[in-house]
Amino acid sequence: MSAPRYDARAPEAGSDGPLHERALARAISRWVLAHGGGARLAELAGRVAVAELSGDTALAPLDPQACDALRREPLVGDGGTPSSFVLDADGRFYLWRNHQHESEVAAAIRARRAAGVARPLDPDVLATLFPDGDPARDGAQRAAVAAVGGRRFFVLTGGPGTGKTTTVLRMLLRLQRDGAAGEGIAVAAPTGKAAQRLVQSLRQESARLRAHLPADWQPALDALPTGEALTVHRLLGWSPALNAFRRGPASPIAAGIVVVDEASMLDLAQLRALLRALREDAVLVLVGDADQLNPVGAGSVLMDLVAVMEAEAAPDLVRLQHSFRAHGALQPVNRAVREGDATALADALAAAGDRARLLALESPAAVAREARRWADALADRGAPPDVSDGESAAAALRLLAQHQLLCALRDGPYGADALNSIIERQLRQRWRVPGDQDWYPGRVVMVTRNHYGAGLFNGDLGLCLRDGEGRLQVWFEDEGGARAFAPGALPAHDAAWAITIHKSQGSEYTHATVLLPPDPDHRILSRQLLYTALSRAKQSVALWAPRASVDAALSRPVARSGGLASKLLAR
């Protein structure tokens, strides 16, 4: 959420907003008053605590009069020494922890960037790493591989299907050739599902590239981390008992190269912990789509980093723009949304024809009607087939991924939960499933909690089918096929014919249907939300929303309030 909601001119702290936000604001305000703070500080303290829940790290800007008064408060410091609250020189008001996070992250990144010295790459090496490429299409990928040499910090950004993972693999091969790997390579992502996808993609691409590379490159391929999928928390050694990470300055990550994929999901605190846990001479590569939704936690680190580095025309940033997977008609749609260009979006939608359809749904009844039609289309394919092995189950899962319903909301009549209930009710009726039968062929679920022992991660989609012996099993896509689990053995899960746009990050679907709430003033609507949703589609997309909601989302780029960008620019 952007800063104006919490600036010094807003109503009394806790007077509006959700109940939990009001309760938090009142609790913080009372704490300040009990510890000698004034009424104005108590009000602002409540606001900054609530702002953090929405991703802001600071309130800004405060007017000069408010700043003068705050500087006289004993609970407020300038960031030089610990204090409950910080007011910086630019009038930003912080909780202490967020000011420290920003300051340490900015200082660490500035130091890493300054320590990097570009190392030229032999053109023959670049040609070897792109044996069947076309510089007209993969020029940015080649630029990234050429630019990463000698760096201590590098950012690779780009939308879905632009070849980020294939570029990362070649970057890792080049860095090994340069001797940068040191004690090894570590790759991770903020979520278990994203980490699993990263490792699988590296494994598949390395197997494809192996046939094209000379023999002296094979050891570098063998050294790639294509085994266990690591979340950032596991990479940092999170200890629930200690409520802290085991990795840090005294016990750094044992790797010379660290790659974090889906870095748009990294919040400020996670990036600080990661930077503290790196060896001084390690290379950190952040990979992700800076135009996607921001993380659940505070900050917008990838967006801020890319904005600053692009403004500088920095050599340690490369943006990939050519999509190798999205249909040509969809690329102008995604580009118009990313740039917030309403005229270009209208033109792109008109030119896309059936590839991008807009259906105005303005009532719960209209949404329910379309959801039932969606379920009927699924049921018309026929009853889900029995499967005999992982290969046939994988084929059924691939068919399932042909079309996915994405919702901006989870709750309410326009949310994923409501659509799942409508769809399940319709499918049960069409497939004649008994009312007391929880599991049945064709039921789709999504895992909502990591289970490392089973190799299932938050976001994994499973499909219930009968095996060759008639038993109901839930199948999940796996390398080279699919794995089956008894329904009772699954970790926490939800129905998943419809999922939230947040849950879809990092995934792609042949056809995507996106549902936005019809209220153009709804706080969930943003340009990043719309871009994230539409860019999931590879062949076609349907947008269930009135034009007013689309225009509202397009006109609202999320700009979280904080000072990381200005601190990155400080010298």
Describe the structure.
- 40% of the residues lie in helices and 16% in strands.
- It is globular and about 70 Å long.
- With 571 residues, the protein is of the alpha/beta class.
- α1 packs antiparallel against α2 (39-53), α4 crosses α11 and α13 (331-339) runs antiparallel to α14 (342-352).
- The two termini are 29 Å apart.
- The longest helix has 20 residues, at 96-115.
Strand percent estimate: 15-25%
Give the integer mean of the pLDDT values.
Answer: 91
| Separation of the first and last Cα atoms | 29 Å
**Which structural class best describes the helix and strand composition?**
alpha/beta
Helix content: 25-40%
Rg over CA atoms? 25 Å
- Name the assembly state: single chain
Write out key terms for the chains shown.
571 residues; five-stranded parallel sheet; disordered N terminus
List the topology elements.
Elements: H1 19-34, H2 39-53, E1 58-59, H3 64-70, E2 76-77, E3 85-87, E4 93-95, H4 96-115, H5 123-129, H6 135-147, E5 153-158, H7 164-178, E6 185-188, H8 192-210, H9 218-222, H10 232-235, E7 238-239, E8 244-245, E9 257-260, H11 268-276, E10 283-288, H12 301-311, E11 317-320, H13 331-339, H14 342-352, E12 356-359, H15 364-379, H16 390-400, E13 403-407, H17 416-431, E14 444-447, E15 461-466, E16 472-478, E17 481-485, E18 493-495, E19 498-500, E20 509-515, H18 527-534, E21 537-544, H19 547-554, H20 564-569
Parallel strand pairs: 2-3, 5-10, 5-11, 6-9, 9-10, 12-21, 13-19, 13-20, 20-21
Antiparallel strand pairs: 1-4, 3-4, 7-8, 14-15, 14-18, 15-16, 16-17
Helix pairs in contact: 1-2, 4-11, 6-7, 7-8, 13-14, 13-18, 15-17, 18-19
